[in-house]
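note to self: dont lose this again. the chain is below, predicted strucutre after it. 396 aa total, dont forget to put it in the shared folder this time
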Amino acid sequence: MDLDTPAGTVFVGALTFTFIGLLVYWIAGTRASVVLGIRKDAPWLFRAEGVRAQGVLIGYLGLVVAVGAAAFSLMSGWLGPDARALSWTVSWVSAVLVLAVTVLWFGRLLIHVATGGKGIPDEPEEGDFVEPDDALDDVDVRSARQAALAGDWGPAAHLLAATSDHDARFGRLFVLAATAVRRGAWLEAWLRARPRDPNALALRAQAAALRAWEIRGGEWAPQNPERFLDALADAETYAREAIEVTPTDPSPHVTLVTLARGQQVDAAEFERRFAGVLALAPAHRQGHEQALQFRCAKWFGSSEEMFAFARVVSERARPGSALCLLVVIAHVEHAMMLTQRGGKFADTYMESDATRAEIAAAERRWRSGPDGPSPVGRAEAHNLLAYAWWLAEDPA
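---
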């Protein structure tokens, strides 16, 4: 191919544009990106993902033009200057063929780059969906749940009676309560056989709380406010009955704290309910998580109040306890709130050095137990950290 021709000049220029585009793409992903004026808090065009997308686009278009120019030059050299019309036709057809073959692939690549790896141009395949299971890695509660669904409440009763750790007990109570919401004949049979069984009463209260929230629905405003409030009142009655029968069990106290948001109790009443949890289990993880929800901005507090609470609790938590990660939940909650203003606000927040540092510090404290992380809540902690680090764009 003769480069000392107009077509050759276009070919060289197009390859130069391709090189520049790829160079910009590479620089935007390194610490040298500051020379391009890239900032995390800048508009999309001047953030790393925006600049990288521009570099990829320039490189791609330059490559397409280079293919067309090369085809023109080769055909012109082969057929001679008298066949310029045919050379132009071959040039355009070559460029169009390259576009037709690569445009879908390039579109996916461009979306991936432009969104920082979060864009999904196609619907996920059915095999990519995983049905979540609150039981996680607890094989004992899985076995008790299976027996309960078959109508045998005995294994659930034995399991709850044998579980002394307050967090592990409430986690199992939650899984069995969710099962009772779907199919509750086994719990009714248990209550008929042992109407004053503290485990059955605590389970009934938590199941009633979950049923109330199902009635409410997942929208911002309750779907059926009157039915929701009635269901909450029933759940409170059950919880207080369980407390009366077994005043040393923190589980129904946690249920009361959970109900507080839906019932819109005042701050004094909420603190009384939360004090009931702390008096029996000062480090109750699920109790603190429910208290965090009450204090966050989307309910009855603020981001400042939520973080102040989460930081104190996380710092005081015993090393190895999943309660060390309460501040990580606060960061995820805050990111979800920022998403309402726009995804870039949440991304910028989670990817900031300060947010990443606090998440890392909480994780180190969780991992620094005498024997490593406590097995209680470990699976949930791993899921939480995986989600937080994914939001923070830190694959490692």
